[in-house]
Each structure stands twice: as C-alpha cells, then as structure tokens.
Design a protein that fits this description.
This protein has six helices and 17 strands. By secondary structure, the protein is an alpha+beta fold. Strands 1, 11, 12, 13, 14, 15, 16 and 17 form an eight-stranded antiparallel β-sheet that branches. A three-stranded antiparallel β-sheet has the order 2-10-9, with no helix packed on it. The longest helix is centred in the C-terminal third of the chain and has 31 residues. The mean pLDDT is 93. Keywords: 2Fe-2S, Iron, Iron-sulfur, Metal-binding, Oxidoreductase. This is DUF5914 domain-containing protein. It comes from Streptomyces gottesmaniae.
C-alpha cells in the first residue's frame, strides 16, 4: 500500500480524521525503527562541524536590565546588549572575586557586578574577556572554542527559516539528565511519534529513512488539534550539526515552517550526572490570509505553542533520560 501523501494545498487547513484506530491497534513500528539506522544517523550528525557554537536561549529572553545566563558544559556564560545594542557575551564569573554575574544588573548597556561594582561594557577589562556571540533573530548563540575543540566558524550553522517578517516564532526550553546525543537520538527516531505522543500525532508513516551517507527522514503525519480535527503534512527531519535536529514541513499546511531542536550541555547535577538543555524553536509560516491575524496575535499564541512543546518534551526528555541511563550502565540495546 502506497503511503498517504498530504495535499499540497487544501481549501481549509483542517481535516477530519476518518476511521480513527484505537491506540493499541495502530500498526507497530518497532521493526522499521531499526537501532542501526538511528545510530548511523546520529553518527553522521556528530561528524558535522558546529564551529564550537552553542545555543544559550531565546532572543526574546534578552532583557535590558539583566543578562541572559547559561552554564554551558560547566562554563558560566552571560549575554547582554551593550549601549549600542550590540550583542556581547563572556564568562559569568567576575574576574575580581568570582561573583555570579548572572545576578548582576545591566545599566545603559553596562553589566555592573553587584558585589563590588566592577563595570563591564563588553570589551576586555580587568581580566574579563568577551566571547564570540551571535543573534539569529530567534536564538542567541555563544562560541566556546576551548569546549568544542573544533575549528571555529564565524557564525553558527543556522537552518534556513521562513522570513522573519512573515513568520511566528516561539521557543521552549527544557532540561533533562542526559547528554546532547540522547536528545538528538530522540529526534532521529520519528517512528515513536504516534505511539509515544498519541495526543499530538496520528497516521504517522516514515516514508523514507536515510541510507548510507544520505540524511533525512521523510514523514507523513497528521497533527492532532482537537478530537478528530487534524492537519496532515509531510515533514523532513535532518541534522545540520551535532547538536541540532530540524523538522521542516515540505508539503501541506504551513509548508516551509520549521521546528528546530537544539541540545546544549550544562553543568552536571549534584550527583555528577550530565544535564542537557533542550531548546526548541518553532518558526511557523503560512500564505493563508488568516495567518496575518495569527501573527498579530503572536503574544497570545506563543504561550500556547510553548505549552504544546512542553507537553511533548516531558515525554521526549524521559526518552532521552532513559537512553542515557541505559547507556551509562552498559544496558542500552541499541
């Protein structure tokens, strides 16, 4: 039986899911979800250059009065905008006596240590050295060459996105006890979607899986909205760099929209276990007239998008944490 192909353009964006199948009577996908295919896709992703760039967080989380802070691979990092609006980043430890700069205020573009008043404008000063930083309009990145150990790139590997002026974006951040590869491996297993997330996905079929040096999982799936109302699409999953997986809608409603999953290593927890921040950026676009209204209502819609992502990632981080736990104890069957 040939796989269902979503319509390229429907008169209405929603469809009615006909003849729904109970969860337990779905077609099993475990034979198709071959561990070797997932492992090879992960291996190819890990071999791609990142240029030592790591996602810190959402551009919208940058404030005028406080730095955006993250501990990346054990390194405290702060990011803010200077007096000219330029993005600057650097160590989050004050070079004077080690105060946590994440708790210090920003005044007129200057980060002022709240312990003794050491003022940082973003230029080298008193032993504090800036780090390369990049704002792609949705996410903020920092380059840590001593952590990544790769040949540095001038800018991070940012996926092609819909134009900012015609799209709606939202960012969700979750943290799990795992390593970045466990988050990436979760996204390179599209077969689990309708089984693990029945509240969000139905009729999921992996149309094409990568083979050899090829990359990309092509998936036909319907996103469940409410009851039997669904949005059928075709999407392709790719990994442009070691800590990023991108789902791009290639056919159906919202063609060109992307969901980016970025994995950033953090500091270990108090038991010495690795922790990873999963930063998911949803960049949605549509040429339907009603999408203009959706963009105007973006402040109201973003919390809904983040809530939907959060529900999915409560499950998917459990998957990633379980994978790490089995790997760390030598019991992972894949």
């Amino acid at each position: 039986m040939s796989p269902r192909r979503p319509a390229r353009r429907r008169r209405y964006p929603l469809s009615l899911h006909r003849d729904p199948v109970p969860w337990e009577r779905q077609r099993p996908t475990w034979r198709e979800a071959r561990p070797a295919v997932i492992a090879e896709a992960l291996k190819r992703a890990q071999a791609r250059p990142s240029g030592n760039w790591y996602v810190v967080g959402a551009t919208r989380d940058l404030r005028d009065d406080r730095p955006l802070a993250r501990t990346i691979a054990g390194r405290e990092v702060v990011v803010w905008r200077d007096a000219d609006g330029r993005l600057v980043a650097g160590p989050g430890i004050c070079p004077h006596l080690g105060a946590p700069l994440k708790d210090s205020p920003v005044r007129c573009g200057t980060l002022i240590c709240h312990w003794h008043g050491l003022a940082l404008s973003g230029s080298p000063f008193a032993g504090w050295e800036p780090l390369p930083a990049h704002d792609d309009g949705v996410l903020v990145w920092v380059r840590l060459d001593d952590v990544g150990g790769e040949s540095p790139l001038e800018a991070p590997v940012v996926p092609v996105r819909p134009a900012r002026a015609a799209s709606l974006s939202a960012v969700y951040v979750g943290v799990g006890v795992c390593e970045p590869e466990d988050v990436v491996a979760n996204r390179l297993d599209p077969w689990h979607g309708a089984w693990f997330h029945p509240y969000s996905f139905v009729d999921l079929t992996v149309v094409d899986a990568p083979a050899g040096a090829d990359d990309g999982f092509t998936v036909d799936v319907s996103f469940r909205l409410a009851g039997r109302l669904v949005v059928p699409v075709r999407a392709v999953f790719t990994a442009p760099e070691p800590r990023t997986v991108v789902m791009r809608i290639t056919e159906g409603e919202g063609e060109g929209s992307v969901v980016e999953t970025h994995a950033t290593p953090l500091a270990p927890d108090d038991r010495g276990r690795p922790r990873t921040a999963m930063v998911e950026a949803v960049v949605a676009a549509s040429d339907r007239p009603g999408f203009v209204l959706a963009r105007r209502a973006a402040p109201l819609l973003r919390p809904l998008v983040r809530a939907a992502a959060g529900r999915l990632w409560r499950d998917d981080l459990a998957y990633a944490e379980r994978r790490w736990h089995l790997r760390s104890t030598g019991r992972f069957p894949g």
